[in-house]
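A student in our group prepared the protein record below, which I am reviewing. What it holds is a sequence and that sequence's fold in token form. My question to you is simply how this chain folds and whether the tokens agree. Do not assume that whoever made the record got everything right. I have pasted the whole thing underneath without changing anything:
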Amino acid sequence: MKQKRKFLIAVLSPVILSPLFNSCTNPNLKRPADESVGSTEPMEHQADIKQPESRETDNGRIYLDRLTDKPSMTLSEANENDISVAVDDYIWRQLNLAHEYYLMGVLANSETIWDEAQYYFEKSLEILGDLDINAETEPISPEGAKYNQILSEIIANYKITLVSLGHLPSDVSADALISRFSEMNHIVIDSTELSRLEKYAEEKVTYNVPVIMNERVKKSILYYQTVARDAFVRYLSRSTKYIPMIEKIFKEYGIPTDMKYLALVESGFNPKAYSWARAMGLWQFIASTGRMYDLHRNWWYDERRDPVKSTHAAARFLKDLYEKFGSWELAMAAYNGGPGRVSRTIKKQKTKDFWKMRLRKQTEDYVPFFMAATIICKNPQKFGFTDIEYEPEWTYDEVIVKKCLDLNVVAKAIGSSVRELRAYNPELLRQFTPPKIKEYTLRIPKGKKQKFLAAYDNMPSSKQTSWVKHKIRRGETVSTIARKYGVSQYAIFSANNLGRRSKIYAGKSLVVPVPNNRSYSSSRKRNYELEGSVYNVRSGDNVWEIAKAFGTTPEKIRKLNDLDRKSRIYVGQKLIIRDNEYQKSYASTEVSVDKAGNYKVRRGDSLWEIAKRYNTSVSALRKLNGLGRRSYIYPGQKLKVPGMASQGADYQIYTIKRGDTVSEIAARFNTTVSNIKSWNNIRNLKRIQPGDKLRIYTRN
């Protein structure tokens, strides 16, 4: 009898259980094949990178939905990007930071705090400038697409700021300074100032380039004296640092030395200046023109930021333009707007007279700006620029480096600082000398050369854990290697100076940049928490584990966040998790202030997010907490929240009933819809439904 019972169970079990398994899994989908993983060889004197812990999973295993106790999909249904760890590298972290600064600028714009908005947009541009991702040539990488999106958004919103600013602060970029002038309708010159400028024009001042005093130049002078005064003072103060070097190089190429003031118009004599036209450095080269004049860039350095190399390139470029057009005015117009555009304009308008040509507005303003800058720089005191604190001439020693060195090690050996070394070597994008250059010329402070040479042999090659050497195995691609380390493909392409169409070969090695603080903790030990309906992606996450943690599927997460099956997630990305089919308790997920009206800062918070959550402004938070524009917040810090102290942080939980509207709930509790949204971190009112719980603050 027992034998018969066992036989029946054995026969019937597949029949009974088969529908259950088939209802939860797709039998036609197979588990993604394991990637062939290459060997990892640490660089010389380098610590090993901890790899993600492998997790054994039965192919037919059913996971129960944590929220609904319904079977969810199995690992066999996940595509390779669902189980790839979140991209966690320098590029995406910086893109995320740039976007955060941009959002803070937008908020400041909406509150008409124009100087604060200007600061945030400039910070965002500065971060993008340090990355300067190649986002122009096809195919565009995900990083390039994100870069383009942020840059275009900054341009659109920053122009609003510039038009609205009554004056420009000292830290404004030279590109923004010209754009502000181009957006102005007119500048009125009063008769007294006009006669003074005309009198100055009659004085004998020597120039070795064409300089005239017409209406357009006069307006540019007045603009420098008024709206852009603070910025021009700063540009003047930096000029003496680089002018001797520029004059020396220009003489070598036969370029008129007064052309040195073009660097003031281009960058304000700032080697790290970056424009929204993707131009970089003292002479504002875009990547393609830079390559034409031997200015190279990769993961480790960008020679457009090298003051000496870029000045040589600028001299060659200006010389070529002068030989092409036979006029310094047209050469400068071509330097700004491109030689092709100037050539087409000459052909179409049948004139070589710059002052009669109709060009792009910024290019039309560019030459008068140069002439105005040259006139003022020849005699700043006459134009009201007195008491300028001029910087000393840029002098340094050069040493040859034949190994990859950590700037921390160099700074300690010669009694300097990393900040000082990076100021002498602005072309370095990392805190290390490039590893693949046999002889790299490093600049160090004057008088430190003997100290460096005495310590050089004992300086170890970099021990950093931010890059590893990966030996390529048969069948591997840049994509599979990037997934293995949780970095972007772009990072690998850039670090190895490869194009997106470059081939890699088995047996060769690639440098893989990996963040120093990478964490590969197992998801089994993780606590997944939502902020409202949003999850903030952390290092080591993947779409599959996130979906499993919240009882949903990777497909639903991708659909809610407009991600296709090829898209990878990245650290810091905010994913919408909850859909209308789940009941939400907004009240339980929202972090409140205490009874004194203080908010405790959590990891990942920003002033912008806190301000948005509590329906206030960044400027109000800064003012109430005594924070300057450059002040940082940190986890555990307590911030006073405007308006919350008076409410005493007393609240009640309201459960939404069928037929309720948020406006009716707001009226019932004598508050506003925007308050309810901010208290409960609700982004979309259409997503709330009966049964959801809301936190409603009430006054004491």
User: Anything to note?
Assistant: The first helix runs from residue 2 to 24. The longest strand covers residues 397-401.
